[in-house]
Write a structure and sequence with these properties.
- The protein has about 190 residues and is of the alpha/beta class.
- It is built from 2 helices and 14 strands.
- Strands 3-7-9-10 form a 4-stranded mixed β-sheet. Strands 13-12-11-14 form a 4-stranded antiparallel β-sheet, with no helix packed on it. A 3-stranded mixed β-sheet has the order 1-2-6, with helices on one face.
- A hairpin with a 4-residue loop joins β9 and β10.
- The longest helix is centred in the last third of the chain and has 18 residues.
- It is elongated and about 60 Å long.
């Protein structure tokens, strides 16, 4: 299977109906070190990948995936996210009837591309949920030993997104008393 990279238009082209996110990441890494390709903005960043945390690969800098130029269903296996919470796909060049299945370890979601001009409400909600998960994993987190509460902040590092009680033990009977990490800045 050949995966092509168009750095001017920021498009990753597929010529197969089945590909894993790990393969996309690996082929991009192989391509990036050829010639002077490192002068282009990176297509991906990654988070996780070590047991028990699954690998999350995020499209960056406006890069998109274009599925095979043919009628059919493309299955992409793994966790493919987009840093700006948009669709990870760009339409095909022809008038193909295409559908993409994103098969993540715990769930699968379908996003039609090519002939469908906009995401459905369900697809938009799924992308927003993925964006929230990214924020929970990346953004600044502060634990307060006085209140026994953890706060995860929005991208600005100021606006609280989530708060919750934390404890010293698994049973949740001993309130957090400041033993451990009290702050984690945004992961980059």
């Amino acid at each position: 299977m050949a995966i092509t990279f168009d750095p001017v238009n920021k498009v990753i082209g597929l010529d197969s109906f089945n590909v894993s996110v790990n393969t996309l990441w690996s082929r991009w890494a192989d391509w990036a070190i050829l010639g002077d390709n490192l002068k282009y903005p990176p297509a991906f960043s990654q988070l996780g990948g070590d047991v028990p945390v699954p690998l999350y690969v995020t499209l960056e800098n406006g890069w998109k995936v274009r599925v095979q130029e043919a009628d059919g269903e493309t299955k992409i296996t793994g966790n493919l996210l987009v840093s700006d919470l948009s669709s990870p796909f760009t339409p095909t060049l022809g008038t193909w009837r295409t559908q993409v299945i994103l098969e993540a370890p715990l769930a699968a979601q379908a996003i039609a591309v090519g002939t469908t001009p906009a995401l459905s409400a369900a697809e938009s909600a799924a992308l927003l949920q993925v964006g929230t998960i990214i924020k929970m994993m990346r953004n600044k987190m502060v634990t307060d030993p006085t209140t026994g509460e953890v706060t995860i902040y929005d991208d600005d590092g100021v606006t609280p997104l989530f708060r919750g009680d934390i404890f010293e033990n698994v049973a949740g009977t001993i309130p957090y008393q400041g033993n451990g990490i009290n702050r984690r800045d945004r992961m980059t």
